[in-house]
Write a structure and sequence with these properties.
Helix 13 links the parallel strand 19 and strand 20 (408-409). The chain contains 17 helices and 27 strands. It is α/β, with parallel strands linked by helices and 550 residues long. The protein has an 8-stranded mixed β-sheet with strand order 8-7-6-3-2-1-21-22. A 7-stranded mixed β-sheet has the order 9-10-11-12-13-19-20. 48% of the residues are buried.
């Protein structure tokens, strides 16, 4: 690893070339600054995993030079991994009031609230950490208090955009601070590290106010129960939905832990002041169907979310059926198409009417489309552009637009160390990157043996053979075979495999059958051959040995 003390460099450990798991690092004169620490979801590429976080090993090894972690806003893909990874970072954390309120709840659940030095900073304020001078710039987004970071260093000014849009009426929170962006541009911006999510979308992302105006009329004409699912952290949308419900005589109940946590954080910070407290799931049962609106978590089809359980008719308190309506007030995050389609199919099968942003004004994106990107380049006028926060098609589209706007694009991916100054920016080295799966209360390497075995079991099944032998190596009765996902216990094929496996072990030399290790290896090989003759798969095979004293 090249060690350059006198430079300014940028290193994404997550979130570049992918959606989610944002973890960005800046190096200045040997000191490091982290920006965001988020999670991602498994999706169809990783069906064995629900939630993933980036591997922070590179910066954890250098945490004595890590000055702090700044959170740009309260979305899961930007702060959801803090509670999982902070013990490896051990650094101060900085966030605006709303993001801090959300993060405190996560740290409390992880038993970390008393350990993490969490500092609240205000939009528009400034913070100095070592050779980094950071100005927080208000940006409109689909969550309150989103911030861009103007990072001044001895080598120049970097604008880290975070997630943003140009919304003339964001409903909750201020508009994007274009005056400050222009002021920064007048000073001279070396590079913009910019959001690429909607770089393929022409035009404008739309205003949250459009959704607020459309929802009351849409809901007014519906009968039965109405359920709306949206991103839990979109406080403006929660308020818009609640106000629309009140306007047409419906009470509002929420279901889903993420929604309850966001409501609590929002009210703590002074948001949702014009909306009565939401009903609980239990209280919703006493409200007539035509007077009830439900807000449910799970807009992306998350398997254990309230929306997925309602769609599968497994939710303990909420049921939807013929004559009810579900509104998907959200976009589809790439990779979640299959999960969302499954939820919508399950709802349609139950006779539920579906409404989405394909045919109704129920959602606008929180990310800039191409006209908004052109506008920020006109304001900031950076010399260089580094597209981040998107898959490769998004990064490529962003790079093309940046070039048209007069900036020189630099393409990189997770693990690339981009030296921004001194001299011409270039990738000078690479850092190891990886992912951990969140598995219950632990982190498991995505490339490790645990998940490799789980993937193999998921697609090829698992076969367990059990053998009882005396201390001299004589078999006691027949072997037993369990093959869930491949054969039923009562399947005649299972009985034939048992007989073949028993005979194969009995034919092994007596000295080998007295050696547990050698017997285990040979028995596994025998069982693998027996199963392989019957299925065109390579299941995970294991053998349990029991020694019975004479």
């Amino acid at each position: 690893m090249t060690n350059i003390d006198g430079d300014l460099a940028f290193l994404p450990l997550g979130g570049t070339g992918e959606i989610g798991m944002n973890l960005n690092l800046y190096r200045c004169n040997g000191q490091w600054l982290a920006v965001d620490c988020g999670l991602g979801f498994g999706g169809p590429e990783h069906p064995e995993v629900d939630v993933m976080v980036p591997d922070p090993g590179f910066i954890a090894d250098r945490r004595d030079k890590l000055l702090g972690l700044i959170i740009t806003h309260a979305h899961e893909d930007h702060l959801g991994a803090v509670a999982w990874l902070w013990r490896q970072l051990k650094c101060p954390v900085y966030a605006t009031p709303f993001a801090a309120a959300v993060l405190r709840r996560k740290l409390t659940e992880a038993g970390l609230l008393g350990e993490v030095p969490l500092h609240v900073v205000q939009s528009g304020s400034e913070l100095t950490l070592g050779d980094f001078s950071i100005e927080f710039v208000a940006m409109a987004h689909s969550v309150p208090e989103a911030q861009a970071l103007a990072i001044t260093t001895p080598y120049g000014l970097i604008l880290h955009s975070g997630d943003w849009k140009l919304d003339p009426d964001p409903v909750v929170g201020p508009v994007t601070d274009e005056a400050t962006l222009k002021r920064l541009g007048d000073r001279g911006v070396l590079a913009i590290i910019g959001d690429s999510t909607n770089a393929t979308v022409e035009g404008h992302s739309g205003s949250e106010a459009e959704v607020r105006r459309a929802l009351p009329e849409l809901i007014r004409h519906l009968s039965g129960r109405v359920a709306v699912t949206c991103f839990a952290s979109n406080v403006a949308r929660l308020e818009s939905i609640a106000l629309a419900a009140l306007a047409v005589g419906r009470q509002v109940a929420i279901a889903g832990r993420s929604l309850r946590n966001i409501e609590a954080a929002a009210r703590e910070c002074g948001y949702l002041a014009d909306v009565p407290h939401f009903l609980s799931e239990d209280a919703a049962a006493d409200v007539p169907d035509d007077n009830l609106l439900l807000i449910l978590s799970g807009s992306q089809g998350e398997a254990r979310s309230a929306m997925s359980r309602v769609a599968a008719d497994t939710h303990p308190r909420i049921a939807l059926g013929e004559g009810d309506t579900v509104i998907f007030s959200s976009r589809v995050i790439p990779g979640n198409e299959r999960a969302i389609n499954l939820v919508q199919d399950n709802l349609a099968r139950r006779g539920v009417r579906l409404m989405t942003d394909d045919d109704h004004m129920v959602h606008v994106s929180g990310h800039p489309a191409r006209d908004e990107l052109r506008r920020i380049y006109a304001l900031v006028r950076p010399e260089w552009s580094v597209p981040v926060h998107g898959e490769w098609r998004h990064l490529t589209a962003h790079a093309g637009l940046a070039r048209e706007a007069g900036a020189k694009p630099l393409m990189l991916e997770d693990g690339d160390i981009l030296r921004l100054a001194p001299g011409t920016p270039q990738i000078v080295d690479s850092a190891p990157v990886g992912r951990f799966a969140v598995d219950g209360n632990r982190l498991v390497p995505m490339t490790g043996g645990v998940l490799a075995a789980r993937r193999r079991m998921l697609f090829n099944g698992v076969v367990i053979g059990s053998l009882a032998l005396d201390e001299n190596g004589r078999l006691l009765g027949q072997a037993q075979i369990s093959a869930p996902g491949l054969f039923e216990t009562e399947d005649p094929e299972t009985a034939r495999m048992v007989a073949e496996f028993t005979a194969a072990v009995a034919d092994l030399p007596a000295p080998l059958r007295r050696d547990d290790f050698a017997l285990g290896e040979s028995a596994r090989a025998s069982l693998r051959r027996v199963v392989g003759r019957r299925v065109q798969k390579r299941p995970l095979v294991d053998v349990h040995l029991m020694r019975i004293d004479n």
